[in-house]
Every structure is written in C-alpha cells, then in structure tokens.
Amino acid sequence: MTIPPLDGRRARDLVARLPRIHVLVVGDVMLDRFIVGRVSRISPEAPVPVVLFEREYARLGGAANVAHNLAALGARVSLVGVVGTDAAAARLRTALGAADIADEGLVEDPGRPTVEKVRIVTDRNQQVARVDYEQDANVHDAIEAELRARIARLGADARVLLVSDYLKGTVTLAVMRALLALKAAGAPLLIDPKIAHLDCYQGASVVTPNHHEAETATNRRIRTDEDARAAAIEFRRRAGCDAALITRGEHGMWLSSEQAEGAIPAVAREVSDVTGAGDTVVATLALALAAGATLLEAAALANYAAGVVVGKFGPATVSREELIAALPD
Question: Is the pLDDT of residue 262 over 60?
Fold first, then answer.
C-alpha cells in the first residue's frame, strides 16, 4: 500500500513546532574535507587526472552532520562522540560552534585520530579520490565510561535520543545500554544503523536502514514494495525494534510498525548527491516525533527533507524555510 501524502497544513504546523526541542545525538563524529580543483590533463606518471588546486572547505560529517541537520531545523542539540587531539578536532569544534552546536559532549582520545574524510573533487563536483583518516576499533574502557557519563548528563532532559552509527568505534554495547536507560524514562530512541551492530539495537523505537543494509540483515532482495514489506517485518524482528523505516533512494521509503505500514514515494525533483541523505532522514524523523507527529507523519516529513537535501552536493542540511517550500499546499 502507498501511504497518502502528508496534509500541507498539518506539515507546516509540525515544522513550526521544531525549534528548541532538545535532542541528544550519539555516534561517530567526522570532518568531511573537500579539496576542489580543475582537471585539464592526465598525469604522465600514472593514468590518473591531475587536479589543479583551486579551493578547500570542510563540512560536518557522520553524527556531526546529523546534529547539524537538527540545528538547521531549529533544535537544541547535545552531541556526544569521540575526537582526537589533532588539527581535525579543532576544525570540527570550530564548525560545530558556527552551527550553534555545543562541543561539551566530545570526548578526547589521544590514541586515535579524529575521523576525517578528505575528498578530491573537480570543479564540476566529480569525485576523483578519497583519503580516510580513522581508527575503527571500539573505544577503550576509560573513553567508553566517559561517553556513558556524558550521555547520562546531557541526555537527562532530551525529548528524543538519536544514534548515528558508522562503525568507527563510538557505538558500543555499553553505550547503547546507557541510551536504553534514558529511553526507559520516556524519550524515543532512533538509530541510523550498521548491520554489524544489529544485536546492540534491541529495544530501539525506530531503526532506519537503507535498502542495502536491510537486504544484508534479512538475506532478502528488495526490488518491489512487497519485497520491502517482507524485509521490513523481518528487520524489525531481527533488530528487536518497534518500527523500521527502509530508505530506498529513488523508490522512496518503506515504513513498517505495528500501527501502520506502507510505501512513501520519493519526492526529489533533481538529484545531485545522496551523501548524507540518511542523516537528514533520521534527524527530521526524530525531531518531528518529538514535536508530536505520528510515525507516519514524521516519516513523510523526513521524506520531503531528503528530497531537498539530495539536490545539494556533499553532506548538507535543510532549513525550515526550505522544508516548508517543499511541502504540498
């Protein structure tokens, strides 16, 4: 079944409620750095393009991009994650400050680098190469204990809890248990997952796999809406969560819960880059739920937000004004 479109008046009312809602985000924070240049020839040393440097810029990535999406929609965000004691950490903190996101939840680990992805792209936004700086082993006990302490302190009055898991070592079983303890007090817990951690998510309110992750978790191919329905039901069982929202790119989304299920058609008018679209989906979904939306309404609103952000290059955000402009009359 296809879920009916979200009523425009109701959607605008929900967007108006988003500012100042407190959201706790926990996960793998990253810095996305872009080196942009012009390509006019192939290297004589190897069959690779020579990129003539023009400019460089950085954006918040991973869990930090989720936090940035929330802040762009007006939320008050507490971000908990791990950084190193390096230049990338300093640059990340500066970018968080510019986005009005406090950095008090960042735990420094001198033994690992700040996760940083450096992309070399052309002036036409074509990616040539990517260099990753990271250590993806789980954080050690002392850092894990500090993460749990900051979750308890910063999340005590959060209206919704959100996990952005990129398998970079921040999201451990003990960290998840600290979040589930907060969920028991009444705040819904949403997770943008990685399948290797599926057993850690037992008890979550909503998990948002993309279709590749859902296929891997359920050993099912997803080609049709009926495939998506079967996979979502099996995913909920495997993950032990209340609801699953499978993001399917140009095919939209499939929502599955005890209360409702169905397809949500894609609304993107022009796709530039899908990088970070999942961050926008889970951020909008979580904030809408905290604002009083039903799960159906929150998923539909997240779908409109994703339709805006895929029209931008790289990890990006959507403002309340852009989201309102994208909504039906």
Answer: yes
The residues with which 33 forms a beta bridge, in sequence order, are 58, 118
pLDDT at 236 over 60: yes
pTM (2 decimals)?
0.94
- How much is the pLDDT for 266? 84
Residue 28 annotated to the active site = no
Fold of 8-29+62-114+136-326: UDP-N-acetylmuramoyl-L-alanine:D-glutamate ligase (3.40.1190)
Residue of 28, 32, 192, 279 marked catalytic = 279
Query: What confidence tens digit (pLDDT) does each residue in 129-164 have?
Result: 999 999 999 999 999 999 999 999 999 999 999 999
